[in-house]
Amino acid sequence: MKTRSIFPATLLLAASLLASCQSKEANPWEEMNEALSQLTIPTFPDKTFIITEYYNGTDSLYTEAISRAIDTCSAQGGGTVLIPNGTYRTAPIRLKSNVNLHLSDSTVLQFVTDPALFPTVLTRIEGIDCHNVSPLIYAYGETNIALTGKGILDGQADTSNWFSPARLKSIDENGKEINEKTLLYQMMKDSIPASRRVFAGEKGIRPQFINLYKCKNILLEGFTLHRSPFWLIHPLLSENITVRKVILQSHGRNNDGCDPESCKNVLIDSCSFDTGDDCIAIKSGRDEDGRYWNIPSENIIVRNCLMKDGHAGVAIGSEITGGCQNVWVENCRMDSPELDRIIRIKSNSERGGEVKNIFVRDITVGECKESILGIELNYWHVEDGPYPPYFHNIHLENITSQKSNYLLHIDGTEGKIQARDIFIKNCTFNGIARPAINYVSGAEGIHFENVTANGKEIKSR
């Protein structure tokens, strides 16, 4: 009798747990809210340190004044370091714990471009660990840091300095022209340790504008970024990151807007992107270095943003070796003839990486050049390798678009399935130029529900 009474109860419990799991899977946006609740936004003591009070009156740069103010603020328990209205020139700045570096409304902070004024720091360039000339704003291992205010950060990068032909392509010892980052890549392939991958002074690789490495509780809010030498905002191996109401306008080479790499709990909210590369690109390391760390990017939320020019509105990859999971994108407008794709996921069989649980909803697209969803499984024309990427559980819902070449453009290898379980629901796509509507290779399990393209219903594949 006891066995009979327990058995139905066990079944009931199992059924209840299964229903609970299914309910949770069916409501990924509730999981987004749960991720939001884990996000810690830093607060600071009510103390202000004004950089002009630390200026000696003779230096042509304000680097020392800013550094002294930051060091004093951090040492005294934290507060706000204020850069008043005006134009100030500086070399790279290093943030410290419990400091909010605040730009007044009419502040312009101009960064010099002479590599001799840049210290060498530990960082990562395109997913590869190295020591390079410092990012313009850098922090390592700090907690509770912020960069706020409505002022302008100007990297002053142009073809006379960071983008000069001599820097982008140099001549090696054999007289061969090489890309500026080729040597770093070869060092990684040759298993040279990161401690010996040093790029200092004139040999430095173009640095990121903002690089926050192994930091926790970060707030970036309100400012405008112009003329970056490389990626604009690059949180790396960091946690609890809020990027809010930032304007990113920079059209140089490799000018990604915001690239969280191997980061956890990230909110990108109410930002404006007009960039020379991907507006947002989520990353997690590349090749051997990515496999050494093996840390995914996860719990990334993008909402209420405006994307104009760029290679993609939101991209994942191509340096995605450590994987990526739990990404939510909602309530964004993406619109420009120079915006290539809306959502882009990219890797190859040398970089690898598993990308899963990607949820996109309520996106208004005016026009884009290529596709609404672009997936590149053979990125940079690499079709074979020991680490094939795998992308799955991708959801697009409530998207409208007025102009694109394709709805889906999935570029893989026939007979080699590396992408599956793609769900597109309640969407209307107009002005698709290519008669085929979709180009799909290397993917299966593509599901359409209540989707029209050029006025015709699209059926599941």
From TrEMBL:
Signal sequence range: 1-26
Entry's Gene Ontology molecular function annotations: hydrolase activity
Keyword Cell membrane attached: no
SUPFAM superfamilies tied to this protein: Pectin lyase-like
Coiled-coil features, chain-numbered ranges: none
SMART domains: PbH1
Domain of life: Bacteria
Membrane listed as a keyword: no
Keywords: Glycosidase, Hydrolase, Signal
Annotated family: Belongs to the glycosyl hydrolase 28 family.
Protein name, as recorded: Glycoside hydrolase family 28 protein
Source organism per UniProt: Bacteroides gallinaceum
